[in-house]
Amino acid sequence: MDGDVATDVRVTAADVLAAQARLRRYLPATPLHHAERFGCWLKLENLQRTGSYKVRGALNALLAARERGDHRTVIAASAGNHAQGLAWAAYRLGINAITVMPRGAPQTKIAGVSHWGATVRLHGDSYDEAKAFAAELAAQNGYRVLSAFDDPDVIAGQGTVGLELAALAPDVVLVPIGGGGLASGVALALKSQGVRIIGAQVEGVDSMLRALRGDRTPREPAATLADGVRVRQPGELTQRLLANLIDDIVVVREAELRETLVRLALEEHVIAEGAGALALAAGRRIAGKRKCAIVSGGNLDAGVLAQLLSEVRPRAPRRPRRRHREASAPALEPAIATLNPTPPNRPRAAAVVRVHEELSA
C-alpha cells in the first residue's frame, strides 16, 4: 500500500466530471466494439493515446496540479503504461517528467516513454522496487511523486472511461485490477446508475481481492502475462473506494488469459496486452444482458504476440443461439397451397397431404 495517502483524502463522482471537462480537448472518446463471439461489448482503451487508459489519469493529474500552481518536476514508477501516459501528458503541457520502470518492462513501453522525451530510469525487478526508488529520488530532489493508481486526480481521470460507457447503458462492466485506480474511477462514474462493477485479477496476482477480504500481508505476485496489473500491494485510497463500490472480483487462470488474448487477436482483430485481455477473460464467467469489458491497453511486444500465436490453440467458440425460431409446418402451408391451389370443396389439410405424396412419388 502507498503509505503517503492520508485517510482524509476523498475522490467523488464530481471529481470525475471535472476530469472529463479537463480532458475533453486533449483526448477523444475511445470506441466501443461488440465482440459477438464473446457476447460482450469491448471498450477499446487499447486505441487510446499511448495505447492505454493510463494517459487519462496522468493528464488529469498534471492539469489539476497546474490549476493549483504546482509546477514541480513529476516522477512516477510504472511497469510501462502509466509511464507512457505521463510522458505524453508532460510533453503536451511542457512539464519535466521522470519515469522509473522495472528492468523487465516490455521494450515497447520503454520505447514509448523515450519517444515523448521523458527521462527513463530502469531500476529493480518489480513495480514495487521501482516505486521505492522513485520515492527516494523525489525526497532527494523535491520532485512530485505521481502514483500510478493511488492518487485522487489519477482516479478521477481514469473514471472518465466510465462516463463514456454511460451511453451504452450496460448492466455489467468488467474492469482489470492491479492497484485499483481504473476500477475505482469507473465505479464512481457508474455505480449510481445501478451498474454492477466486476473486477478481474490473475491467479497469484490478486492482492486487491485479498486486501478486501482482510488479508493485507504483502506477497510477491506470480509471474504473469498481465504485467500491467502485477502489483504487490494495492492502493490505500483505492481499497477504501472499492470496499464500498465493487460488486465482485473474478480471479482468472493464466491459461484463460492467454487463450482470451489470442482469441481477441484472431477472432475480433483486437490487439490487447495481457492486462488488456484480463477483463474479457473474467467476463466469460459473468452473466449479463448488456455487459462490457474494458480492454485497458494494447502495448504488447511483437515477439510475445508471435510466441502466443504459435503456442496457444484456442478452443472453437460455441455455436451461437438462434435469434429467431425456425419456421414451423403451419407457416409453410400457405406457400404449398399457392403452388397447389386447394379446390373450394376440398379441405386445406388434404391438399397439403397430396403435395407431399406427389413429391415422394
TrEMBL record:
<dbReference type="InterPro" id="IPR036052">
    <property type="entry name" value="TrpB-like_PALP_sf"/>
</dbReference>
<dbReference type="InterPro" id="IPR001926">
    <property type="entry name" value="TrpB-like_PALP"/>
</dbReference>
<feature type="region of interest" description="Disordered">
    <location>
        <begin position="314"/>
        <end position="347"/>
    </location>
</feature>
<feature type="compositionally biased region" description="Basic residues">
    <location>
        <begin position="315"/>
        <end position="325"/>
    </location>
</feature>
<dbReference type="Pfam" id="PF00291">
    <property type="entry name" value="PALP"/>
</dbReference>
<keyword id="KW-0456">Lyase</keyword>
<feature type="domain" description="Tryptophan synthase beta chain-like PALP">
    <location>
        <begin position="29"/>
        <end position="296"/>
    </location>
</feature>
<keyword id="KW-0663">Pyridoxal phosphate</keyword>
<protein>
    <submittedName>
        <fullName>Threonine dehydratase</fullName>
        <ecNumber>4.3.1.19</ecNumber>
    </submittedName>
</protein>
<dbReference type="InterPro" id="IPR050147">
    <property type="entry name" value="Ser/Thr_Dehydratase"/>
</dbReference>
<dbReference type="GO" id="GO:0004794">
    <property type="term" value="F:threonine deaminase activity"/>
</dbReference>
